Each structure stands twice: as C-alpha cells, then as structure tokens.
Amino acid sequence: MEYSILDKIRKEYKPKLPECLSRDISAVGVEEVNLDTQHPEKAKLKEIMPRTFGKKYVKFVQKPEKINSKPLSVGFVLSGGQAPGGHNVIAGIFDSLKKINPDSRLFGFLGGPQGILDDKVMEITKEIIDDYRNTGGFDLVGSGRTKIETDEEFEKSLQVCKSRKLDALVIIGGDDSNTNAAFLTEYFAAKNENITVIGVPKTIDGDLKTDLIEASFGFDTAAKTYSELIGNVERDSKSAKKYWHFIKLMGRSASHITLECALQTQPNCAVISEEVKSKNQSLQNVIDDIAKIVMQRGNNKENFGVVLIPEGLIEFIPEIGALIKEINKLLGDNEELIASMVGESKKQALWLINNLSPSSSIVFSSLPKFIKEQLLMDRDPHGNVQVSRIETEKLVESMVEKRLLQLKQAGEYKGKFSSMTHFFGYEGRCAFPSNFDADYCYSLGYCATALIAAGLTGYMTSITGLSKPVSEWVPGGVPISLLMTTEERKGKMKPVIKKALVELDGAPFKTFAKNRDEWAIKTSFTYPGAIQYFGPDEVCNKPTITLTLEKGK
Ligand code: FBP
Prior knowledge:
globular
C-alpha cells in the first residue's frame, strides 16, 4: 500500500482525550445520574423492552485505585454509511482495552452486520491499527446495511458472539443500527447471556443527537469538507458571474448538513426541509421562492449564485412525502408479491402506480420521468427511500428555469439564467477526520471500553461539553432505549431511535433565518477553505457552527 505524505504524517497525530479518560482507564468507574427524563412513550417501550428500558444515564469518574483489569474480548461492527473517524473509534477501543489488560482482544466483523451473521471476523493487532490511525473511511473491516431483526438473526448473532467468547459487541452506527443494537441487547438479556452490547453514535447526517449525544461522529468533517467545496464553487461563480449552481447535499432526512454549510458559506439560498414541512409548502412554493431570488439578483445584473438543497427535501414536501409513504406502505404490505416480480421492474412499477390513491397518483404523474423512476427504486434494508439516488437538484433546477421563463414572459425577469447541478455527498464521508472528529472518535472508543468494563449493556457512548476544549469533555453512557420512540417503517409502527431534525426554534436555524435575506440578494459568500490539521487552534480545533450555537461556550 502506498501512502500520501499527509497519510504518513497524520498517523502520528495523538488524539486528545477528556481528562477523566486520559489517566488510568482501568481506574475509571461509572456514576449513575438521576435525570428527570419522563419518556412520553414509557409504558409502550417498557412493554417492548422489559429488560433494558428504564436504565439511567451514567458518567465516568476516576476511582482512587484500579477497578477493571481483567482481559476483555470485544467484537465490533461498522454499520451503515461511512463517516470520518470510524478508524479512530476502533483505535480508541483497541488502545483502552490493551491498557486495561494487554491480553484483551479486539475483533472486527467484516462488511457490516452481515459479518456477524456470517461469522466473518478479523482480529485487530497493533500493526494493523497503527496503519489506520486518524484516517478516513471504513475500509479496515468494511461496512454494510444488513439489518439484524428476526429472532433467527438475533440467535445467530448470539451464537457467533458466544463461539468467539466475546464479552461485548460494539455497534458503531446511526439511528437504524443502534435501534437494532437495542433489540439485540434485549434478546441477549432475555437469554440471560452476559454479553454486553454498546452503541457508538455515527452518521454524517448529524441526526442522532439529544442533550446527551451532542453530535454524531463524522458530521464535523463531512460538513467542513462540503463547505470547502461550496466555498470554492461560490468563488468560481462570483468570478465568472455566469452560472447559478444548484448543490444537493447529503443528509437523508434532517437538513443539519445543509444548515451547517449555509452558516459556513453564506449562499444565496439554502432550503431547509424541516421549514418546508412546517410551513406546509408545496414543491411549487419552494421553486417560486428560489426563482424570486434569482429574479431579484438578475434584475440587479447578478446572474450568478448558489442554492443549497438537502437531499432529504423530497420526502419533506408534503405532497411528495405522502406519495413516498404510500409507496413504502405498498412495498411493505406486499413484500411477497413485489419479490415475485424481481427482474420485472416495469411490471413492478406499473403495479405500484396502479395501486396509488387518486391524490398521490396526480402528484406522481406531475413529476418528470427521471424522478418517477428514482422514486420507485429499491428501498434500503431499513425501508428508507434512497434519497442520494434521487436527483432533486436537477428537479429543482429544471422547475426554477421553467418558472423564470414565465416571469420573463410576464416582463418581470430581466436577467439571464444558466445553471449547473452538483451533488456533494460521497466526497465527504471518507475524508481524513478533522481534529475534532479524530479526538471525538478516539474518546468514544475509550468510552465504549469503559462501559464494557463496567458491565453495562444497552448503552450508547455519550460525551457532553463538546464545544469546550477536549480536556473538559464529560464522557459517559446513555441507555439506548431512552432515545427510542415509535415510528412508521415500511408502513408499520415500529420502535426506533428518534431522528433529531433541525429545530426551527434552535439557535443554528434562527441565526440562518436572521441573515438569509441579506445573503440572498447581496453576494456575501464566505470561503472556509480546506480542513486544517496543523496550525493555530482557531483553524484546527474549531467545532461546527451548529455545535457552537447549540451548546455555546
Ligand atoms: P447513515 O445514516 O448510515 O450514517 O448514512 C448516511 C448517508 O450518508 C446519508 O447521508 C445518505 O443518504 C446515505 O447514507 C447514502 O447511503 P449509501 O451509502 O447506501 O448510498
């Protein structure tokens, strides 16, 4: 394997740890904290997860003497989409396990949760992990989206963990993967098995977030990478003055990435899906708003600009959201029938179209052919529509162009409209983790070990105080079941981890809303540049604007 110079130098970076984890990890104990958390669906969840619901948040404390020094055997799995910092979570678990006892062992399941079902593992050694420290990607063991959900799959997972003599299984994933972690915990507990299950919050989308999980890892690096790219496009557009750029950004549901990038780059327009939904805006309303900005700038002879579009928008537009829900329900209720049409995508599509309600049928027929086809594409194993594969940026661009033509014909628009579309998603998921993500992930790895050593199960690693210097971060664990709610999946109500959407009364959105009218008309672009790994604190170690505004200093 050949390494770039940055790759080589970056491997030497020593991630910072919160004070409490930086001394003797084998002397770290837990302290239960009584939070006044009245879960609104307590009764329902207690019934579904009788053995694991109702545990308390714990924070770590240094004890005067060693309390955990027995060797531990731990398995881990990377689940779902790649997020910068995954390798540092593994490095953190590895180093802390070895510090507790050099005979501890760490095994990575290959290719995501399917690796557990197929019992495919790789033992992580010092030589191996040293090669992956502070690098992006999940390529050390790979990832996948297989869902472990049936009793048969839970049993298989249990048998594999037992045969490997694991004390614990760490699931590094997003909301769906950690939902599965909660059920696996319940299953192991029901079988009286002493194998603990720990979750680690991963997703660039930033939507696995509560008061106790202030950020999911990867969000910082991904948002900064996209912001660099957007800044570059902005500067190009301001230099050439001839294109409008429509940029779709990842974020399957929530618009956190788009909002953060907007705060970092001050584009002319950024659509926030949660606002569209709350205002019950139709697709045409969204288009009219964008066209108005293009028109005003065009009438000022500024025929260029940048529009940010979250990839999840399509599901938040009420009429399209209802259509997608209907398609999902039809797919969920008719799994066997649909499966019998495998290889006959036209027949499958026709069947779906014929079974839509009259209102959804009208919406469906109003959409361009490419969007129709993309809406009917396969769902992911968790039943989600694959929004990354829907070209919303092209849909918006073409509808804005159409609207501008109408405005021109009405004599209201005097500018020229030339446009380009972009999708920034995969470009940011495997970047070298920023110092924030490198430190955060390494610390999360230590937290996972501390939870395992304390014999806790069904917990997600939690670090609070993230807007402060690393030494002041407060590490601990939050019961996964506390994060759960019930939601419709594949047309049926299921317990899942609640997705944290952009809060319209939160500081990040309010800051954006206060400034956006000015950014729309004036050219106020800001250029964050590339992530810096070395140099002054304010360029290397600054958290996202979202985190700073949400948590303050
Ligand atoms: P996770 O929720 O698994 O972290 O994935 C996030 C994400 O990057 C989304 O932003 C995007 O919609 C999706 O994954 C793309 O999935 P895939 O990698 O399967 O194309």
